[in-house]
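Query form — protein Transcription antiterminator

QUESTION: What is the three-dimensional structure of this chain?
INPUT:
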Amino acid sequence: MTLKIGLFCSGGMSTSLVGSKMQKVYDAAGRDVEVSASDFSMIDELGDELDVILIAPQISWAYDQVVEQHPNTKVIALSMAEFGQMNGQTIVDKLDKEGVTTDGK
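ANSWER: The structure tokens for Transcription antiterminator are given below.
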């Protein structure tokens, strides 16, 4: 089953780049993961369809609200350092440490 990860920020532009880089890391590793990137206004519409919601630092203020509104979805906030690197591998490594894995990989 495909693991669905949604990355959200205030505008969606930088998030698209980070999400694309994450997707390349997962694809290269042969992991069954689908990464999407959206602006914060889409979180209510998409959140319950996701396995993981990643929150960019620009909207970290909404973390508790998102956790409350999506109790069945793992919610992870990214730090400015993690997000600012624009490095897909860095974020994938963080997710692995948080227990977000596919098929034991």
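ADDITIONAL NOTE: The longest strand covers residues 3-9.
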